[in-house]
Every structure is written in C-alpha cells, then in structure tokens.
Amino acid sequence: MQRLAIGTATFGILTAAAVGLAGTVGAAPTGGSNAADAIDQLKAQGDTVQVNVENGPRSSALSECTVTEVSGMSGTNSAGKPLTPAEAGTVYVDVNCPDDVS
C-alpha cells in the first residue's frame, strides 16, 4: 500500500512539472499577432529571429504586418528537456504585410 502511495505521488509531481513546462512553450507568438510585438517577445526570450515577408512590400513597418507562422522553436535535448534559445538556433517568423498602408 505504501508503494502505491509513493508511486501515485511521484506520478502527480511529474505530471505537474510537465504541465508547467508546457505553459512556457505555449507563450510563443501565434498566427495573427502583430509582427513587431511577436518579434520583440521572441528576442526578449533570447531567440535569434529571422523574418520572412510572405506578402506585401518588404519596406513595410513590422507594426503594420501580422504573423502567419512561427517555426523552429520546438525540440528537446537528449535528456528530454526543452531546448534553450541558444540550443534551438534561429526562430523563423513568417509575416503578411499590407500592400498599401496610408
């Protein structure tokens, strides 16, 4: 009976830790976000960011553009821990900019 209680407690602790780490990954910018804000957020986390303009002029202000996709953030090391920004490398942010900004 004591082994069952220890096993259950261990499982509960591991589950809570996994949920806590998932919250960190979920903080990444998502599609539809303001591009300038998303890039600032990623840089603040220590990520190296490459912006790919999919639509619109490349001269558009990023504050006028929206994020269509963020990639390159996933991965774990050999111990199963999430990669740090330095380990993960470059995060790619695809943006859509308006054709005509008045």
List the helices and strands and how they pair.
Elements: H1 2-25, H2 35-44, E1 48-55, E2 66-71, H3 85-88, E3 90-96
Parallel strand pairs: 1-3
Antiparallel strand pairs: 2-3
What can be said about this structure in brief?
With 102 residues, this protein is α+β, with helices and mostly antiparallel strands. It has a domain at 30-96: Trypsin Inhibitor V, Chain A (2-Layer Sandwich), CATH 3.30.10.
Structural notes for this entry:
By secondary structure, this protein is an alpha+beta fold. It has a domain of 67 residues: Trypsin Inhibitor V, Chain A (2-Layer Sandwich). It is built from three helices and three strands, in the order H-H-E-E-H-E. Strands 1-3-2 form a three-stranded mixed β-sheet. The radius of gyration is 19 Å and the shape is elongated. About 20% of the residues have low confidence.
Q: Would you state the CATH class of the domain at 30-96?
A: Alpha Beta
Q: Biggest β-sheet, characterized?
A: 3 strands, mixed
Structural class: alpha+beta
Would you tell me which CATH topology of the domain at 30-96 applies? Answer: Trypsin Inhibitor V, Chain A
Number of helices: 3
Q: In angstroms, what separates the terminal alpha carbons?
A: 72 Å
Q: Unreliable segments (pLDDT under 50, ≥5 consecutive)?
A: 7-26
Give the averaged pLDDT, no decimals.
76
* Whole-angstrom Rg: 19 Å
What is the share of helical residues? 25-40%
Query: Any idea what the shape is?
Result: elongated
Strand % is 15-25%
The succession of helices and strands, N to C, reads: HHEEHE
CATH architectural name of the domain at 30-96: 2-Layer Sandwich
- How are the strands of the largest sheet arranged? 1-3-2
Tally of extended strands? 3
